[in-house]
Amino acid sequence: MINKSISQSFSLIISSILIGIISCSAPHANSYKIQNDSIVISGNLTEFLHFSYVNQNNDLIGVFITPDSTKTRFREVIYTNLPVRIAFDKNRNFSPAILYPGDEVEVSPHPQYADAYYFNGKHPNDLNFLTTLEHEKGYVFSSYNINNGINFNFFMNFIRDKYIERKSFNNQYSKDHPVTKALKFFSETDILYGYYDDLLSPYSTDNFDFNKVPVSYIDTLYSLKSAFNCDDCVISLNYLDACYFYNRFLCRDSLGKDNETYALYDTARNFFKGKTKDRVLFKLIKDNMNRGLPNFEVYLKRFTTDCYDSSYKKYIDSLYKRSMAITTADTILNTRFISVTGDTINWHEILTQNKGKVIYTDFWASWCVPCIALIPFSIRLDSTFKNKNISFIYISIDADKEKWLKAISKTGLNGIGTHYLMIESHNSALSRALGIPPIPHYLLMGKQSQVIAAKASRPNNPGLVFQLNKLSENK
Question: Would you give the DSSP letter of residue 3?
Answer without folding.
Answer: -
